[in-house]
Amino acid sequence: MYTVREPMRHALAQHPGRTATVCGGRTQTYRELADRVDRVGALLSSLSEPGDRIALWANNSDRYLELFIGVPSAGRVIVPHNTRWAEPELAYATADAGASVLICDRDPGGLADLVDQVIRLDTVDGRNDYGERIAAADPAEFTPPELTPDSIAGLFYTGGTTGTSKGVMLSHRNLMANAVHSQLVQPFEHDDRYLTVAPMFHAAGVAYVYAIAWAGAANIILPAFEPHQTLDVIASERVTGVLLVPTMMSAVCEALTNQPTDVSSLRWLSHGASPVTQKVLRRTSELVGCELIHLYGATELSPLTTINRHEETYLGTDRGRSCGRAYPGIEVAIVDPVAGVGPVTGIGPVTGIGEVAVRGPNVMAGYWNKPEQTAAALSADGWYRTGDVGYLDEDGYLYLVDRAKDMIVSGGENVYCTEVEDAIYQHPSVLEATVIGVPDERWGEAVHAVVVLRDEHDLTEVELIAHCRELIASYKVPKSVSFQTDPLPKSGPGKILKRELRAPFWEGTDRAVN
Question: Does residue 403 carry a pLDDT above 70?
Fold first, then answer.
């Protein structure tokens, strides 16, 4: 199996003059990108040791891309930071990873005290620190350290069911398996022009990075998503493929309705990160008119696991609700969600409903410094328990119906309920609280809090939401709050019965994820 160095080696040998990236009016070839990747290694060799963690806190850019390739190619471990996190979340991930260097495009604030070195990507007082350092770095003076497929390439922090984020350890094997699987089933061609608009700190934003380089295709990069700008770039750059999360799809459709744009260059539009409604798929198919591709996966899976190509041909049928079949080299099974850790067994070729488990070279190495959580998620023979509930049909197509983990997916972002509940409980007026996911037309699912106040305490929905906003990222903050005087419903052992609280919101739906 390869390391992440291989795609750039191939690009330099096979298509050095092809366009590698287009970003903000700046275009570079693969020869130029390869040189900058080498300079990243030379720069890091003067600041860190092999295996050190390098935190990256920035918006999408071609510089982000060269760091995403260059940091692990230099034998260091990249730690992408979510730009939507609140300061406590950023500080936790930086400290937990033990990052020695922070590369950012904004004021680092208190994070500067947690690392040995800060490098600014943005221009401050007329000086671009990163640009100057890269220009001065000499690749000839850098000897890349030895890498193996099992070397850790990145730590990708996700929310935690225990109240703190977990660093998902993805190896070179994991990331390159994802690239190989993509090229087997949804191959990039040398004339493809792919649009990166999903945030690159998110698995969806970098899912195709190495496959694109291997093929010699062009990566068109937008700093952030804005529907009209996205459509303008698709038209002007003759984009052939794009990955959007469902909320982006809805916004693009709305923009297309209000301002028709030529998107005829699109060959395919893939979507993932959260379930999508048939209404959004139909509207996208009608307005965009290209192949629709449904992807399913998770950060722990590097991230792609199943694919449903030409989804537009299945709309209105049962298969239109499927997230597809496993990529070659990946196994998907349905298992007993309450079974203990250990080998798992599917429950039939046409399965009943159970927890989705995945095995293959894409499955993470584990959670950083969290052996108990790793043991709970990974079985001894390599199966990862996803926490999603679903079933497989007779042709191996996967259907999701619920979520076993205490997690909400809102706008493509994972929101672990415990994190939100911990924030709510820090308010002195709160006696009891729980968080559930409720259907939402725009976000797929919205975070809803159910709260019981202490006697003689007053608290409004606006006040509680403002309190949470100080502690957690905005996408985790409850969109709505309901207060009740009765204690929250509980099981015999005292566990809050969230299904009872969720049931009225999901009445009339055929599944409990949206």
Answer: no
